[in-house]
Structures are given as structure tokens and as C-alpha cells.
Amino acid sequence: MVENQIFTKQRLINLSIIIAAIWFTWFAQNHFDEYTVRIINNVAIFIILAVSYNLINGVTGQFSLEPNGFVAIGAYVTAILTVDAEGMLYQYDLEDPAQWVLALQADFVWALLFSGIISALLALSLAFPVFRVRGDYLAIVTLGFGFIIRIITINVPAVTNGSLGINDIPEHSNLYWTCGAAIIAVVVILNVIYSKYGRAMKAVRDDEDAATAMGINTFKTKTLAFSTSAFFEGVGGGLLAALLTSISPDLFTFLLTFQLLIIIVLGGLGSTTGAIIGTILVMAGLEWMRFLDEPMNLFGYQTEGLPGMRMVVFSLILIVVMLFAREGLMGKKELFELKIFKKKKADK
After folding, report:
1. Residues 6+ apart with CB under 8 A from 230
2. What is the pTM of this model?
3. Can you quote a single GO CC term (predicted)?
4. Cβ atoms within 10 Å, residue 327
5. What would the pLDDT profile of 50-64 be if each residue is shown by its tens digit?
6. Based on CB atoms within 10 Å of each CB, which residue in 243, 257, 270, 337 is the most buried?
7. Cα(243)–Cα(171) distance, integer angstroms
8. CA R_g for the chain
9. Which residue ranges make up each domain of the chain?
10. DSSP of 46-65
11. Which of 154, 175, 169, 179 is nearest to 77 (CA)?
């Protein structure tokens, strides 16, 4: 009876948050200025990337460094499927586009789905060699995968236009696309986490050998987390391409993975709520602190612009947070697991 009440309370909290997010999306799209909408679009895309990356790295405990590879795949698949043949012939300067590339055309929603599916299928094929190792070795293998994808995008100009990248991608920058996809990603991943598969992922994270001894198929569990994470990273990459309208291999370096790693560690490894909070603080916070790079009047003293000062201040804030919150802002907890949402026990 008590468990049912707790479960009902969790569902009500989650439903309230989803309704609030939908209302905010509508309000922001219709009332905020273009610059603010652009920032929210960017935050929403990185929420998709962060919560999906947290599934494999935080919930399942596999130190993977692959997100930039899957994001690149999603971005290029969406670009190729949405840019028309005439546009490709005009901008492919290094080498004429392959005929099969010219023949590929799809609506944006289908392009996003294909981006996610192709990323997930590649993750499934990579799972066999990748999960033969653990720990630091797993990080090295997945890091290499990201480098390989970037090298391929540079050296196959008939498909990707090489180092010049793809331009004139149809823009789909309204918040209904990005925030809608972010809400779907969060809901799906939370449902995975609180299913029997999610409990198996947490068991693998806590002690993989013990999980195996208890009869959990650890390879299947890790592969499920890896492919689910890759699917949403591919979708996020497609949305990023449609937001920027121009992509190149330089966008998908290890710095993208490192940025996502900072976000999920700051929010708390294993917490989807923490990944969302970390994304808002990092992506929106860095934009808000741009004033630190500009000339300022401090106590009557006029300072010159110091480009990069916001990164110095942001780094100091990260150090302070990590000193006082060793497990991140949320630890492994979700929003509804905080004390303020728990029913107080009656005095005996």
C-alpha cells in the first residue's frame, strides 16, 4: 500500500514537470526574443545528449567516451537526408557527391529517426568488441571510436564534403522540435531506468561480478544502455545540425564529449535530474557570464575586456562545487527522491 502511494506520488510529480515543460516551451517560443530562444534550443539539445550519455556512463557505470562520434553520425545523416541534390552539387567542392547520396531525401522527422536508428545499430555492432574490456580500457576504446568517425568524415568527401562540411541545412530551430525531443528523451530514459532493465544497469554499475553471479546478463544490459544512449545522441546530433544549419568535422572533437562529461559529473553521475540541472547551469550559465569578457566598471575603475575571463570564473565555480558536493549536485538521486517530496514518518 505504501509502495503504491509512493509510486503514485512519483508519477504525479513527473506529470506535473512534463506539463510545466510543455507550457514553458509554448510560452518561450511565443514571447521570448530570438537570442533567448536560441539559447534554450541549445540547452534542450544538450539535455538530450546529457541524459542519454548519463545512461551509459552514470547509470550503467561504463566509462565511455564515445558521444562525439554518435552525435557526428546523427548530424551528418540528418544533413544528407534533408539537403536537396541541387544544394549538394553546388557546395561539394572537393569531390562530386556520390549518386546514392544525391538520391537520399527524407522529411526532417524521418531524418531524425534514421539518425537515431543508424547510431543505435552502429552501437550494437560496436558492443561486441567494446565490452570485452572494462574501466580505463573501455574509455580508450570508445575514445578511439570518436576519432575514427571524425577521420572518416574528413576523408570521404563524396559523402560528407570532407573538411568543408555541409552547409545550407534546412533550419528547424523552433522550440517545439528541440524541447519536444528533450521531453521525449527524458521520459523514455527515466522509464528505462525504473524498469527491470534499469535495475540491472545499476547492479552492473555497483558490482559487475556480483551482478553476473546473480544471473544478470551483463553484456545484454550494457548493450541495451549503449544502444539506447547512441539512439538519442544521434537524434541530438540531427537537431544540432538543423539548428546550426552548417556542420563540419571540427564540431565533433573530443571537446564535445568532455563538455558532456563535465555536465553529468556536475549534476551527479546516475541522476537524470542532475544531468538536466548540469546542462542548464553549464550551457545557459556560460552564455549569461559573457559580460565578464567585456569592459566593466568595477568600483569606479574601468577595466578592459578580458576574453576568456568567463571560463576562468566558471572553472573556479566548478572547483568549489566539486569540493563541497563530491557526488555532484544531485548525487544519484532524482527530483522526487529528495527529502522535500518524501512523506514524513509519523511519530511513534
Report:
1. 52, 66, 70, 116, 119, 120, 122, 123
2. 0.90
3. plasma membrane
4. 15
5. 999 999 999 998 998
6. 270
7. 6
8. 21
9. 9-253
10. HHHHHHHHHIIIIIS-----
11. 169
